[in-house]
């Protein structure tokens, strides 16, 4: 698909809080490269408010197909509830538009593979899909990944990935939240997936996971707490904790390597100051080396805007964008494996959830203690 020499045309689907708070600022940051021309929402009042905030020239639609036919966008930003992501991604791809989608991209590995089948092949120039995993973008994350993958911090040994947030009953009063068919899971899928993706981005391939999950507070279909033990291909071992019952909210990653510990502590986004490097005693005397760890070359906070930079560059080049393809599938497979390990009580290895496995088509795997009644023939 050829690209116009002028600004790319973008459309936003779903005009709620995330569209206002994250996608509009990101598009404004890239106004020289991309122009917002359309928005879609079934709620007219919400749509009108968004179009007014976006400024002149943004046309509102109540149907995706009508927007795609009339506006012919190059890029569709999906900010709709998760249950619509698969259908809307495929529809946009078939119309020739690239897609940047809020997490989770879809509700299962089966849905992911259906989306991937609608993409252009690598080398064809697209269109492709990218998932919003903004925590892996920004200068602090890029610097940490370079140090870890180059071996500058020594061999990775032990890691901790923590997403301990708080959500009250009013949060779950929104009808699609806490339900497998509309959200795909609990904090493992909808909250902790950001830190999980960053952990995998920093440490690489995972090989084995053991896990537990529970409904400790909220009356929902999915979990409100999960924990996991993970082994990586490089030998490192990690703990992963996801919660929406934690009054003191924090997002944290810690990786202990042979020569240093790298830590990130934040909540919904990070800058360079949120990263900390602590040298091991034998490395502390090498001042210049330690200083390079603590001094990224630039200051760029993690954000939708930072990720959009890479997506637009990929569109111009006709290459797969960051946050898509097998890389994004790996994160979704990790979450599916976490659920399978938690619900079956058995270890799960990377690559074992394939077509025919119940956890391939649904994150609850049809487990009688977790699946909704209409999905399992019994359920809870």
Could you characterize the architecture of this molecule?
There is one protein chain. With 380 residues, this protein is α/β, with parallel strands linked by helices. The chain has two domains: 8-133 and 305-320, NAD(P)-binding Rossmann-like Domain (Rossmann fold, 3-Layer(aba) Sandwich); 135-301, Dihydrodipicolinate Reductase, domain 2. 36% of the residues lie in helices and 23% in strands. The protein is built from 15 helices and 14 strands. An eight-stranded mixed sheet has the order 13-12-11-7-10-9-8-14. A six-stranded parallel sheet has the order 3-2-1-4-5-6, with helices on both faces. Helix 1 (17-29) links the parallel strand 1 and strand 2 (34-40). Helix 4 (85-94) runs parallel beside helix 5, helix 6 runs parallel beside helix 9 (193-203) and helix 9 packs across helix 13. The radius of gyration is 21 Å and the shape is globular. The model is unreliable at 375-379 (pLDDT under 50).
What's the topology here?
Blueprint: E1 8-13, H1 17-29, E2 34-40, H2 44-54, E3 59-61, H3 64-71, E4 75-78, H4 85-94, E5 98-101, H5 109-118, E6 129-131, H6 139-150, E7 156-166, H7 180-183, H8 187-190, H9 193-203, E8 206-214, E9 225-232, E10 237-243, E11 245-257, E12 260-266, E13 275-279, H10 281-284, H11 287-293, H12 304-317, H13 325-344, E14 348-349, H14 358-361, H15 373-376
Parallel strand pairs: 1-2, 1-4, 2-3, 4-5, 5-6, 7-10
Antiparallel strand pairs: 7-11, 8-9, 8-14, 9-10, 11-12, 12-13
Helix pairs in contact: 1-12, 4-5, 6-9, 9-13
């Amino acid at each position: 698909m050829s690209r116009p020499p002028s600004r790319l045309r973008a459309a936003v689907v779903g005009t709620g809080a995330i569209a206002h708070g994250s996608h509009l600022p990101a598009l404004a940051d890239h106004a020289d490269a991309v122009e917002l021309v359309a928005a879609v929402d079934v709620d007219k009042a919400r749509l009108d408010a968004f179009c007014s905030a976006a400024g002149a020239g943004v046309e509102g639609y109540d149907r995706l197909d009508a927007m795609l036919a009339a506006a012919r966008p190059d890029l569709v930003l999906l900010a709709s509830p998760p249950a619509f992501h698969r259908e809307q991604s495929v529809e946009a791809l078939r119309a020739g538009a690239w897609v940047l989608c809020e997490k989770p991209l879809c509700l299962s590995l089966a849905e992911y593979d259906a989306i991937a089948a609608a993409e252009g092949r690598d080398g064809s120039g697209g269109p492709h899909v990218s998932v919003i995993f903004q925590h892996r973008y920004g200068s602090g994350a890029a610097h940490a990944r370079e140090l870890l993958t180059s071996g500058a911090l020594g061999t990775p040994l032990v890691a901790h990935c923590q997403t301990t947030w708080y959500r009250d009953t009013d949060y779950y009063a929104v009808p699609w939240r806490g339900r497998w068919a509309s959200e795909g899971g609990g904090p493992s899928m909808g909250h902790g997936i950001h830190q999980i993706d960053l952990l995998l981005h920093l440490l690489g391939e995972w090989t084995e996971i053991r896990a537990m999950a529970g409904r400790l507070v909220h009356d929902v279909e999915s979990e409100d707490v999960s924990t996991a033990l993970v082994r990586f291909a490089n030998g490192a071992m990690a703990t992963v904790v996801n919660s929406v019952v934690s009054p003191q909210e924090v997002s944290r990653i810690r990786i202990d390597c042979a020569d240093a510990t790298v830590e990130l502590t934040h909540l919904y986004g990070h800058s360079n100051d949120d990263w900390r490097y602590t040298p091991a005693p034998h490395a502390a005397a090498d001042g210049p080396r330690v200083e390079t760890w603590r001094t990224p070359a630039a200051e760029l906070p993690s954000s939708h805007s930072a990720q959009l930079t890479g997506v637009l560059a990929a569109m111009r080049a006709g290459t797969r964008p960051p946050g898509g393809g097998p890389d994004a599938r790996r994160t979704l497979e990790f979450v599916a494996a976490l659920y399978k390990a938690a619900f079956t009580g058995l270890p799960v290895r990377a690559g074992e959830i394939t077509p025919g496995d119940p956890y391939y088509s649904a994150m609850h795997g049809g487990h009688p203690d977790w699946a909704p009644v209409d999905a399992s023939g019994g359920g809870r």
